[in-house]
Write a sequence for this structure.
């Protein structure tokens, strides 16, 4: 299945979550209006248990920008490890290189962060990495390439990212993963348990 390349506002409204940057005020006003609905008049059908699980899975995929196969493999990997599957899934999602580039503010959105990685603008421990799904380890240092450090859009994004998360440390144009992320470290607009249940059917 190909990655969705259509209007991001439509995708966000379909899932009911803001997958764009926080400044998308016009989207926030319309999140509860599904595509095709007129000011919320479109009647939503009550979802079955399966439908509810499916929607939560779709939300998570949309937020992290993953294809079905990628997301399914992550859930399978999380389930194969000891401990709480949902907790492990959060760690796997949050330690992807593209996600951490976004969390540090180097990219305004995860899509922009993925592009930065793919174009070779991110280094991990001073080595260029071009794989968005690269698994970042604790104490790894993420930095911008010399070319990216001169990009005003990237610098503006970094300057605007004022909020910090307990598992990352930001210093100038670099950042470090200081611990494995946990569920309580991030606000997730989807239900992890329902996602685990969906794939365990």
């Amino acid at each position: 299945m190909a990655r969705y390349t259509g209007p991001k506002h439509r995708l966000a409204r379909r899932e009911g979550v803001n997958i764009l940057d926080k400044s998308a005020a016009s989207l926030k006003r319309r999140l509860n209006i599904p595509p095709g609905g007129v000011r919320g008049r479109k009647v939503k059908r009550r979802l079955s248990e399966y439908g509810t699980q499916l929607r939560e899975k779709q939300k998570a995929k949309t937020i992290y920008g993953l294809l079905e196969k990628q997301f399914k493999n992550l859930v399978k990997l999380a389930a194969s490890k000891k401990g709480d599957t949902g907790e492990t899934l959060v760690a796997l999602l949050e330690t992807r290189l593209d996600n951490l580039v976004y969390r540090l503010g180097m990219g305004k959105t995860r899509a922009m962060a993925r592009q930065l990685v793919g174009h070779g603008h991110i280094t991990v421990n001073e080595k260029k990495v071009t794989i968005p799904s690269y698994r970042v380890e604790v104490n790894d240092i993420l930095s911008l390439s010399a070319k990216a450090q001169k990009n005003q859009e990237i610098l503006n994004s970094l300057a605007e990212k004022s909020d910090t998360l307990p598992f990352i440390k930001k210093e100038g144009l670099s950042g470090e993963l200081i611990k494995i992320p946990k569920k309580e470290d991030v606000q997730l607009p989807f239900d992890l348990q329902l996602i685990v249940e969906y794939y365990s059917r």
Remarks:
- Residues 53 and 192 are 9 Å apart (CA to CA).
- Residues 1-45 form one domain.
- The chain is about 45% helix and 10% strand.
